[in-house]
Amino acid sequence: MELPFIDEHAMPCAEPVDATWEALLGLLRRQSSGSAWFARRLGCDPAAGTAEFAGRVGEAVPGFRVAEAERGKRLALRGRHRFADYALIFLIDGESLRARSYGSFPGLRGRLYRALVIGSGGHRLITRRMLRQSVAAARRVTLGRLEVP
């Protein structure tokens, strides 16, 4: 099922793609513990994450399952709950880390949920924060790999 486009956000990131990939996966693993409770309340599929999440197809973080993964380039997450069917796709190109969001919000409850999450600007804030945190973590990973003479 093709989902309607919602938005795209990007953050400049000149770090090596491997560092950016690992930082993104690390962020998703860390957020899993706090988001499981929320995912269960919304009736998310999936509601729980994969214990050793490594970004492989079929693995999950609460609210999302990996639909496609191309290491260092693309991580496509899909999920659904009682108000929406959605996808979040991360793209790494060596110059930026981008996040594209797609979703459908059927019925009155779906439209109200969309207004609450998307219309309020909350989705934009959360997505941008995820990008900032991933880029900062990639920078730390890169700096940690540098040898000091």
Features:
149 residues; alpha+beta; 6-stranded antiparallel sheet; 3 helices; 6 strands; 29% strand; globular
Provide an overview of this structure.
There is one protein chain. With 149 residues, this protein is α+β, with helices and mostly antiparallel strands. The chain contains three helices and six strands, in the order βαβββββαα. It has helices spanning 17-42, 107-119, 122-145, and strands at 5-12, 60-61, 64-70, 74-81, 84-92, 96-104. Strands 1-6-5-4-3-2 form a six-stranded antiparallel sheet. β5 (84-92) and β6 (96-104) form a beta hairpin. α1 (17-42) packs antiparallel against α3. The longest helix has 26 residues, at 17-42. The radius of gyration is 16 Å and the shape is globular. The model has no long low-confidence stretch (mean pLDDT 92).
Q: In a few lines, what is going on in this structure?
A:
This protein has 3 helices and 6 strands, in the order E-H-E-E-E-E-E-H-H.
What general form does the structure show?
globular
Q: Structural class per helix/strand content?
A: alpha+beta
Outline the biggest β-sheet: 6 strands, antiparallel
What is the H/E order? EHEEEEEHH
Radius of gyration: 16 Å
The total beta strand count reads 6
Beta fraction: 25-35%
Query: How many distinct helices?
Result: 3
The strand line-up of the biggest sheet is: 1-6-5-4-3-2
Helix content: 40-55%
Rounded average pLDDT: 92
Q: Which consecutive residue ranges, at least 5 long each, have pLDDT under 50?
A: none
What is the terminal separation in angstroms?
Answer: 54 Å
